[in-house]
Amino acid sequence: MARRFFVPTDRLARLRFLRIVQAWFHLEDSRDFGRMLFLYVGLGIVVGLFAIVFHWAVAGAEFLFLDLMAGYRPATPGGEHLLIKPSSTPFNPWLLAVMPALGATLSAILVRTFAPEAWGAGTPAVIQGYHSGGIVRRRVTWVKTIASALVIGTGGSAGREGPIAQVGSALGSVVARLLKLAPAERRTLVAAGAAAGIGALFHAPVASALFIAEILYRRMELEHEVIVPGLIASIVAYSVYSTVFSWSPLFHINAFSFDSPLELGPYIVLAIFLALSARVFARMYYAIEHRFDRMRGPMWLRPALGGLGVGAIGFVEPDTLGAGYGILQNAIDGQIGLWALLALGLGKMLTTGLTIGSGASGGKFAPSLVIGGALGGFVGTATAGVLPGLGMDPGAFVVMGMAGFFAAVSNAPISVIILVSEMTGNYHMLVPAMWVCIIAWLLTADVSLFAGQRETRLDSQVHLAEAVEGAAKRLKVRDAVDNVEHERLVTVHVDTSLAELRVRFARTHHSTFPVVDAAGVLVGVIDDEALREAVQDVGLDHLIVAADLMIVQPTLKLDESLHSALHKLVSTHHDELLIVDDVDPNRLVGTLSRRDVVAFLDERIQERGRADAEGRL
Fold first, then answer.
1. pLDDT value of position 185
2. Is the model more confident about 379 or about 424?
3. Could you tell me the residue ranges of all domains in the chain?
4. How far is 169 from 30, CA to CA, in rounded Å?
């Protein structure tokens, strides 16, 4: 019977096939069109399929626990529809109150048993995974999917973006390990997988790639290497996901517009209010997290107690439960009153802190959008009442609140502006969105809900190593030699006795002696290790000569890179190597030690730091 698949079926043939594929993916040009397309399109397809599964898992959990058991049916945003026909179960607030604790407990037991790294929010885990080399275990994919579905599906105040980002990063890491890719590309696959997951679920393929590139750092820096791969993967994942669900933006909004510079005034007030609220929320969240971290007892008890707190708040205000996208849609449509919006924002802060701060699996993105949207709606409704002449729609303030609040707590203002525009399908509000996001971000430079963020690229261990390696490849041995003052090079003849070698060794700081013959041609070297061994033999000072101790050692050239020089120093276990002329390898120029290289690189780094400091003045 003919084989139905291209991939060989027997084990030996499969291994050969895999080696061929691995060899192809080790091309030096990482921008090779066919290679990049195959790699990141494939990743996007896989992540898109997982996003479909995850969406169904959350919907199934919501139907089972909230609808069928408690009779509670959360509202849905305009761009999504119910996947399962609602049941006829009457609403039971007492059952609803215990559902978050049930889901958090089951989720915590699953996570602690199989994949502890899936504990808590997903996006910080992606950030940490990227900065630690891009290694994410395969089991995270299914553990995070089930655990997050249990938390969100039982009413926990958490979002879907963090879990799917961690699932996508795990899939990227699996692909990289399967193809045995270099660490740099493994990190890129991890980031691209996370972007693909967010781009699919939020219907925002462009902003998701920028978001992952920006969220890695506290300062306004972009991980530019991941933008193009992230765009490819997220576009494909979004297309796969939307083929099954909807191509519409996540939220349906009215035709908001920006028509007068006078509108910037109320938006400044909104930005300041959002910045103050972000500070309150961050302090509240970390205080709750710290309190749970200090709690004794089994780990599953923390999310269980957090879930009970969430349920208690949900008993009074059910709208604070779950991801909250439907409530956000109602706020955009103007269906929630002034004080109800403020109560929703404050209540959502508490339920989010209790859910994720206690260690339950879920994302911070969606709750932050709901908090910001509710607070923005509060300011917008108040503005419409106080300044009706401006004709500003409170729904526009909801959208600006979503963007501004998350920009304040994430340190990712640029991508958030585009993200909210894609989620709402409205690009006419880009100017006020930029205004609100930048002001809120400037007022909260020291605030972040993502503890794994690094300050700058050089604060990431992977980039620090790359920076040193890149500098070493660009600089030459000639640069280091010209920078360091050397004492006169001492050579010895092949017939020099051990007694004379002992005297010369005591008079110099060099650890390597070039050995020359009668014609002055370099024939070998004697290092300090050989001398130390020889001087232990008493009475042989005039019997042992240089020729007996010399070895053949790699040499350096003036135009050779410092990276190559360091490799030779490390691989030969020598502290110092000889430098010869580029044209005549028998003519000695000098020596280069590890100490010389380190001192030279340190001086260049200090010069760069001083230049950067002067540029900021």
1. 83
2. 379
3. 15-244, 261-459, 476-603
4. 19
Of 481, 504, 495, nearest to 592 by C-alpha is 481
**pLDDT tens by residue, 540-577:** 667 777 777 777 777 888 788 877 877 777 777 777 78
Query: DSSP per residue over 262-282, as a string?
Result: GGHHHHHHHHHHHHHHHHHHH
Residue range 122-137: average pLDDT?
Answer: 73
* Distance, CA of 162 to CA of 362 (rounded, Å): 6
CA distance 614 to 608: 10
278-335 confidence digits (pLDDT tens): 999 999 999 999 999 888 888 888 999 999 999 999 999 999 998 888 888 999 888 9
Per-residue burial over 309-347, b = 16 or more CB atoms within 10 Å of its CB, e = otherwise = bbbbbbeebbbbbbbbbbbbbbbbebebebebbbbbbbb
**Average pLDDT of span 248-253:** 84
Tell me the C-alpha distance between 344 and 351, whole Å.
Answer: 10
What six digits make up the tokens of 583? 């044209």
Q: Residues 100, 101, 103, 107: is their CA dihedral positive or negative?
A: positive
Edge-to-edge strands, sheet with 492-493: 492-493, 512-516, 522-527
Class of domain 476-603: alpha beta
Q: At which residue do the structure tokens 């890491």 appear? A: 173
Q: In what order do the strands lie in the sheet with 556-557?
A: 556-557, 576-580, 588-593
Half-sphere exposure of 535 (CA within 13 A, CB side): 13
Task: Look up residue 69 and give its DSSP letter.
Answer: I
As a whole number of angstroms, the distance between CA 196 and CA 206 comes to: 10
pLDDT of residue 27: 45
Q: Return the CATH number of the domain spanning residue range 261-459.
A: 1.10.3080.10
Nearest to 362 by CA among 151, 52, 169, 195: 151
Report the C-alpha gap between 46 and 41 in whole angstroms. 9
pLDDT tier for residue 63 given thresholds of 50, 70 and 90 = very high
Residue type for 415, please? Answer: S
Tokens standing for residue 272: 């300041």
SS3 of residue 568 by DSSP? helix
Pairing of strands 512-516, 522-527: antiparallel
Q: What pairing do the DSSP bridges indicate for beta strands 556-557 and 522-527?
A: unpaired
Tens digits of residue pLDDT in 200-235: 988 888 889 988 888 888 777 778 888 889 999 999
Phi, psi (rounded to 5 degrees) for 161: -70, -40
Confidence check: pLDDT of 613 > 50: no
Q: Which residue has the higher pLDDT, 460 or 149?
A: 149
**Alpha-carbon span 350 to 365, nearest angstrom:** 15
| Common-topology check for domains 15-244 and 261-459 | yes
The CATH H-level superfamily of 15-244 is Clc chloride channel (1.10.3080.10)
